[in-house]
Amino acid sequence: MNTPSPDYLLGNTDEEHQRLIRQAKRIAPITESFFREAGIGPGQRVLDLGSGVGDVAMLAAKLVGPSGEVVGVERDTRSIARAIRRAADAGYHNVTFRQTDVAQISSYKPFDAVVGRYILQFLPDPVGVVRSLSKLLNPGGVVAFQEPCWVPFLQLCRDLPLWSAGASLIYETSHRAGVNMRMGLTLHKVFQEAGLPAPKMHMEVPLGNDPDFTRWIPDVLCAVRPQIEQFRLSLDAVGDLDTLPARLQKEVAASHSVVPWFGIVGAWSRTGTT
Ligand SMILES: C[S@@+](CC[C@H](N)C(=O)[O-])C[C@H]1O[C@@H](n2cnc3c(N)ncnc32)[C@H](O)[C@@H]1O
Fold it and tell me: Residue 38 in contact with residue 113, Cβ under 8 Å?
């Protein structure tokens, strides 16, 4: 049975887990190349924040290899149980998961890197979390986060009414639920307020037109439907969620083009060495 997770917008249903896995598969090359650029490599001990069902932790585990170690932190019981099963099934012996809030992590053993994907946007005090976790790093340790930027997403889909309506409804629902929808570019400020050097940053905007790509909008709308209703937002502009995937795919195919996803902003920096 699914246990509701009232503190987290997207919940922890099996459908949400499968959506996260599909999403992780699609963006894995972007995250992998970002982690390599940030300096994640063999032998390191890495802390992954907001692990979800484990994809980022497993990706980091591949990069650090058998001589390294990854500790994934996740608050939700169902998600962490799935992350543990998936890491074991995939044969990763160098990943462990801890069930805790990212604001309450302590460690007697230092880390070489702290990483996270799509987690700071959900936190009430991202600066405080990054500051306190930076203190768990060895000198010169890496801090590397990927967070969304919605500006190109909302701008680039303006000619596609249905895609645009779906993206706008997700944006509005998430915003009202307290998600920081500007976290991508805000990383620059977050790192510095947390006492880190200004991060190196870049943004990638995935584009696509196949059904696996376009189903992201209906999948997320289904996940946040309780909040859409709670905030009394209207589904009229997107219509029936059951038929939305086919209607979206038709709209995108008729455009003979590709549609955007949100921009993935990567920011990384290193703690001081003195
Ligand atoms: C959008 S998912 C991202 C999962 C994973 N990082 C990925 O990219 O596939 C965000 C995850 O952060 C977790 N989370 C949110 N707030 C948290 C907190 N304060 N402490 C620990 N985990 C948290 C949620 O339960 C969820 O699993």
Answer: yes
